[in-house]
Amino acid sequence: LPAIFEPARPVLQKIEDAGYEAYFVGGCVRDTILHDEIHDIDIATSAYPSEIKTIFNHTVDTGIEHGTVMILDHGTGYETTTFRTESGYQDYRRPDKVTFVRSLSEDLQRRDFTINALALREDGEVIDLFNGLEDLQKHLIKAVGNPNERFHEDALRMMRAVRFASKLDFVIDTATLKGIKENAPLLEKIAVERIRVELEKLLLGQNPVAGLKDFIATGLYYYCPGLENAQDALSALLILNQWHLENEAQLWSVLSLQLQLDQKEIGKFLKKWKTANDLIAQVKKVVPAVQAIRQRALTPSLMFNTGETALHDANQVAKLYGWAINDEELQKAYQKLPIKNAKELAIDGRVLITKAGVKPGPLMGKILQQLTLAVVNGEIANNATTLLKKVEEITKEG
Ligand code: ATP
Ligand code: MG
């Protein structure tokens, strides 16, 4: 077993010593077999939450109604979930009522894909009830059981399929793909935040083109906010082969660029996806910067207004399209800016009031803006005397 499992083994052993079963399950097992990096370890057990809490002294109720208890052991937390079945699916969404069961096989049966339905014993033995190992080897994403039924139970699984296609660079099994095509409209029942997580993971995955292709071909895109008419815009991404996207700001900028959205439309589009406001602000900076990079029209004031991180994001996006400029040159150009933000200006509103007799109000804001622009453009030096002289000129003109 990879080293990451080692500290968790005594935890599983302790559960077994108490007379219950315990396994590593889900993504961590899949990724171990694929020799991929493992980010979190999930443990499934036949012990009920109350039983886990009598076995261990230090636990936290992280999701006890779903059977999840965190065991604290030597400063590390291990999420442990009781074997469960999910029944009474309503509205094609994951039910919030679950039934705890004692059998591993029932727990594995409710999982989405065969490659995600593997369990690993603490001694290294793999429990594979649905041919997940073979599908891992074949690089196949295949629903556990009948795809139709599984997507009816939880329509989010369709998005998960296309995101795993990208994340793992796997192919979706034919019957599973057919199931997605037939049930794609059910995606409308799913909360947009949950769809967003999967779409983001898709675009940040190993093979976004593969995931996107399925996202388009299955018609899933049609049931996503703001993408109803985006078939062509999305398809145009399929010929791009330099995917280096690193974060949400970059991927939402790509989508905004494809959809040719202006500033206002970017805001509307991202609000539909219920993204955070600071992400919207960032995308609104990245998109024009990408266009400026493309046209080799990066001016000092545009760099100043964009800021360092959005500039980096913009160049990263530009790489996808083959428009990027050299990262170091960009960095150098940015560093050459006389000031990097408005606070670095040698005078502020208070000085304007005391030394230049300017009254607080809209005019003051305008003056500060003009000063900032002049300094950024290298027209005047950033020292109080020079700036105050400039203020005099401006107020005379005004
Ligand atoms: P990642 O590496 O992206 O976290 P993961 O496989 O761990 O991938 P999670 O969303 O963390 O994905 O879910 C953990 C496990 O729970 C999955 O491997 C799968 O067995 C099960 N699972 C998660 N979501 C669903 C779902 N909607 N339907 C059925 N099973 C699910
Ligand atoms: Mg996980």
UniProtKB/TrEMBL annotation:
Keywords: ATP-binding, Magnesium, Metal-binding, Nucleotide-binding, Nucleotidyltransferase, RNA repair, RNA-binding, Transferase, tRNA processing. GO terms for molecular function: CCA tRNA nucleotidyltransferase activity. The lineage of its organism: Bacteria, Bacillati, Bacillota, Bacilli, Lactobacillales. CTP binds at G27, R30, R111, D154, R157, R160, R163. Its EC number is 2.7.7.72. It catalyses: a tRNA precursor + 2 CTP + ATP = a tRNA with a 3' CCA end + 3 diphosphate; a tRNA with a 3' CCA end + 2 CTP + ATP = a tRNA with a 3' CCACCA end + 3 diphosphate. Gene3D superfamilies: 1.10.110.30, 1.10.246.80, 1.20.58.560, Beta Polymerase, domain 2. Residues 22-141 form the Poly A polymerase head domain. This is CCA-adding enzyme. It comes from Limosilactobacillus agrestis.
